Amino acid sequence: MAIYKSDIITAKDSLDVSGKSLSGEKTGAQVLYATAEYVFRENIEITDDIIELADIPAGATVVPELSYVRKSFGYRDLKLSLGDKDSAARFGAVGTSDTGIPLGPSLFGYGIPCQANFGHGMATDLPRYVEETRVRATLQGITEYILPGEKLRFGIAYRVQG
Q1: Helices (H), ranges, 2-161
Q2: What one-character DSSP code corresponds to residue 64?
Q3: How many CA atoms lie within 13 A of 79 on its CB side?
């Protein structure tokens, strides 16, 4: 298992952001999005690798059904779970049909680049974080190599209590 970082976590970790905030894009109704992209750098077959995606602020709750991932490739089985340091699949999973994801919004199309929403199999007790928390994806169910340059783009929806 390896741990990788999305573009926003790489940038944040390389800057002194003390006293500053890298916030998401406001979409209304106090729901914000933290967006992140991960570009595969190696031609490898991976299982249980982690991509650190974004930091969710204290006082926020992730909204799994509005959170998504877009993949830039087709013709590879893939399953991703979304979680935090305490639970790798707290916010559910997405994947292709051969990875056990049922028909619905969490199912990727197999032969095309496409988007799927998290929420399938999510925990019933979603926390309101008391401190800033890093959300991460765990890669599973990959049956073929993912080529360098292929991308995963994430949108992590979270609600801040007003």
Answers
A1: 7-14
A2: G
A3: 17
The bridge status of strand 68-71 relative to strand 31-39 is unpaired
Report the greatest alpha carbon distance in the chain. 45
pLDDT for residue 40: 87
Judging by beta carbons within 10 Å of its beta carbon (0-12, 13-18, 19+), is residue 77 exposed, middle or buried? middle
Q: What is the DSSP letter of 99?
A: G
First to last CA, the chain: 39
Please give the structure tokens belonging to residue 135.
């959300």
Read off the amino acid at residue 156. Answer: I
Give per-residue pLDDT as tens, 119-143.
999 998 899 999 999 999 998 877 6
Give the integer Cα–Cα distance in Å for 59 and 101. 31
pLDDT digits (tens, 9 = 90+) for 4-40: 888 777 766 665 544 444 444 444 447 899 999 999 8
The pLDDT tens digits for 66-77 are 999 999 988 888
Residues recorded for the chain: 162
Rounded-to-10 torsion of CA 72, 109, 137, 57: 90
